[in-house]
Amino acid sequence: GGETRLRQVLNNLIANSLDALSVRPPPRRLWIAARQDEHGVSLSIRDNGPGFSEHALAHALEPFFTTKTSTQGLGLDLAICDSLIRALGGELLIQNHAEGGAQLILRLRLAEPGTNPYPPEDLSA
């Protein structure tokens, strides 16, 4: 996938986790883990914040859905992340972790060995 797209997705997902942690007293924790199997790569971002409500789980990937105030965000970050990842043939899963907090799992397919399906991005433009 394009470096700029992946950077935007990761920045948004980590920023959302950090926002959720701001309402929690210490200790605040953020876990990032990657795993590869025969189907692709999974990247997990987990926090020990309040997690998602059932309503938020059902609507979090919809444009303009937010649990924040209007001055904190428009509710586009997760919808954009989902769209970018789907365009790369992947998926974004949102859930609550069994031990509490939110967990976002980014699944990306593997490229064929030796191929470069996305040329390096020209950021000078």
Summarize the structure in words:
This protein has 125 residues and is α+β, with helices and mostly antiparallel strands. The protein is built from 3 helices and 4 strands. The protein has a 4-stranded antiparallel beta sheet, covered by helices on one side. Helix 1 (3-21) packs antiparallel against helix 3 (77-87).
Sum up the structure in keywords.
29% helix; 3 helices; 125 residues; alpha+beta
The largest sheet is:
4 strands, antiparallel
Q: What's the total helix number?
A: 3
Strand content: 15-25%
How far do the termini sit from each other?
Answer: 19 Å
Q: Helices and strands: which structural class?
A: alpha+beta
The quaternary organization reads as single chain
Brief overview, please?
By secondary structure, the protein is of the alpha+beta class. It is 29% helix and 23% strand.
List the helices and strands and how they pair.
Layout (H helix, E strand, L loop, with lengths): L2 H19 L8 E8 L2 E8 L6 H6 L17 H11 L3 E6 L5 E7 L17
Antiparallel strand pairs: 1-2, 2-4, 3-4
Helix pairs in contact: 1-3
